[in-house]
Amino acid sequence: MMSPSRYPRALGLAALGVAAALGLSACAQDAGPAPRGGDTRYVAGSGVVESVPAAERKPVPRLTGTTLDGEPFDLADYRGKVVVLNVWASWCPPCRAEAPYLERVYQETRSKGVEFVGIDTRDQKASAQAFERSFKISYPSVVDPYGELVLKFNGVLTPQAIPSTLVIDRQGRIAARALRALTDTELRKILDPVVAETP
Asked: Global pTM?
């Protein structure tokens, strides 16, 4: 029989156990699938994939920088083209899963005036370059080692959640966004209608 002095302690431990279980459950629901490889930098996005009606689109923020190849970059140079802007990092497991799909859609749509641009965020340059070689990524990525470029999209993207993707129309407005990894089919679903719009 449990002594009276130990009984309250046992109740307290049981309550802590229930609270911990509830807390873990909430974290699992909020954070989504856990990253493989024990990398704690990866934060899952909200899962939102949505298109924006033309009348409600907002201009994309000014984006300039340097690519992984050391070339100057200015998103304004792409005005008049549809742009797929993808935020990624070499240490992000869903980014690795998504990369082949992005390259595939890029190759399929570049003849239609579609450009792809990456933002390599909170990453090591050498690791990012190895990632691009491994997945044969042929479009440019802008270096964003401290996450400052992604912050320009605050309110549109979640800075800590990657991968994330924006589709930018020919007028330089945000036409669609995805706050999770996409397959080629899912990307085409939000990209093709923008490509089909009258210039």
From this structure: 0.78
